Amino acid sequence: MRPSIVPMIRKTTFPAVACLAMLWTGAFAQVTTAPQELEGVGLEERLGQQIPLDAAFVDESGREVRLGDYFKSGRPVLLQMGYYKCPMLCGMISQGMVQSLRDLSLEMGKDFEAIYLSFDPAETRQLAYLKKQNMLKEYGRPGGGESWHFLTGKEDQIKRITEATGFRYKWVESAKEWSHPAALVVLTPDGRISRYLRGVQFPPRTLRLSLVEASEGKIGTAMDQVMLICFTYNSSTGRYTVAAMTLMRAGAILTLLVLGGAIGRWLWREHRARALAAAAMPR
Q: Which of 93, 153, 191, 212 could pair with 220 as two cysteines, CB 3.0-4.6 Å apart?
């Protein structure tokens, strides 16, 4: 019994241990030591990098496509890289994304597109189809059917995308699973990397502002644009926070307004006092 139990324990505990280690290291921030399963795995941010839009894949229906097919609408794109048989982490990322999207007024298909790219060249379009059906059910909005794309492909084409995005992963033979980062990549309408959202939970405001920012103002409201001026993305926290420079400028302007108002009021009082004094003088 014992020899057969050990592999089972290893197989079931690896995803949990690896996932906890990933989150503990700040979604793949630099660390001094790491489990062997995580060596060489991580995410190197390449903001502004153009991804290869001519990369060829197969979608969930079996149709041969180019990545650029999804960048013709003028909308930003949410990209998740994972694999359909992933026992834990990929599902957590997808669930975190869907939970946040359900809280947004932005609509998939109207305001943005979404792509799930399997980096496992052994996976089939049938797996992609099943994954899409599950995710559409979770999302629960009509736009996802035409605008959420689930892709599989050959290793050389997959590598073109993972290398362009700095997404580093590897096969762990002992667990028969892939070790990979936890993140979404936000892409501009022309296929440039605009933002990385690390982890498995994505605050709705962060996701919304990331999409608005990537769209270069083509989606969202006037208030979103004001928020982007007042807030800046903090990669260490994965959230938009109040920009220090904005606060300093706002504080300086407010100080000038207060001082200007005080000086103006004092000058008005002085002028009024002199006028009253002059009126009271005998002629």
A: 212
Backbone angles phi and psi of 168, in degrees to 5: -110, 130
- Output the CA–CA distances (angstroms, integers) from residue 5 to 8, 9, 11, 12, 88, in the order listed: 5, 6, 10, 11, 21
What is the rounded distance in angstroms from the CA atom of residue 182 to the CA atom of residue 23?
Answer: 8
Q: How far apart are the first and last CA of the chain?
A: 119
Torsion region of 77: left, alpha or beta (phi above 0 gives left; psi -120 to 50 gives alpha):
beta
Range of the domain at 258: 247-283
Average pLDDT (251-256) is 55
The residue out of 202, 220, 238 marking a domain boundary is 220
Using CA atoms, how far apart are residues 101 and 208, in angstroms rounded to an integer? 8
Q: What is the pLDDT of residue 232?
A: 64
Residue 204 CA to residue 214 CA, distance in Å, equals 15
Give the Cα separation of 107 and 147 in Å (integer). Answer: 10
Confidence of residue 153 (pLDDT cuts 50, 70, 90): very high
48 has pLDDT over 90:
yes
Tens of pLDDT, residue by residue over 206-215, are 999 999 999 8
Answer whether residue 68 is part of any domain.
yes
Same-domain pairing of 215 and 124: yes
Q: Do 125 and 61 meet the contact criterion of CB atoms below 8 Å apart?
A: yes
Helix (H, G, I), strand (E, B) or coil at 179: strand
- pLDDT value of position 164: 98
**Quick one: 167 and 281 in the same domain?**
no
Q: What is the pTM of this model?
A: 0.72
Query: Does 194 lie in the same domain as 93?
Result: yes
